[in-house]
Structure prediction request, 191 residues.
Amino acid sequence: LGDVAIDSATPTTDFGTWTGLQFGTDGARAMAFLMKWGIVSIPAGATIRKATLQLYEQEHYMESADTYRVDFFHVYDYPDYNIAGQPWFEGGQNGGACTGNELCWATRPIMGSQMNLIASNSQNLAAPPSAIFLNFDVTNILQEAVNMGEKDVTIFVSAEKLTTDGGLDQVFFRSKEIGGSLVPQLTIQYY
Prediction:
């Protein structure tokens, strides 16, 4: 349904049509992304056996010894999280002003009231080779969304650098805007 990168250095910029997603840090600067998936086909009361988010890692700026803890947060569905009284929208620009219900850093969900305070899933990531698919477990997020009766699930992806070498560190993934076989995939097994 949607995916969008957000960046604290440009808090009111819309990156909705950008073909990339990123997380990383550069001093006080933070970069993250959000993804929304429709889950209406999962019946109420289902048990999620496994949910895997597959992302194509395009490139990264990490030293070989760097490690990130990648955190996945469950963002509550509309109306609990809304922008201007509407469900969030990824926006229709790459670099323009964030307006209306477009999602950008300034309109991101608030921890605690609009998304989980503690990450539902976390995974350590060492500097990967570029141009590969990476798989992340998001089972807990999907189970929470089903338990809450949500029709869509939004996943907020951020990262904290666990090593301290300073400087810019980013990991870039392909977004759904790239099209073809490199788009993000969410695979869900349930009963």
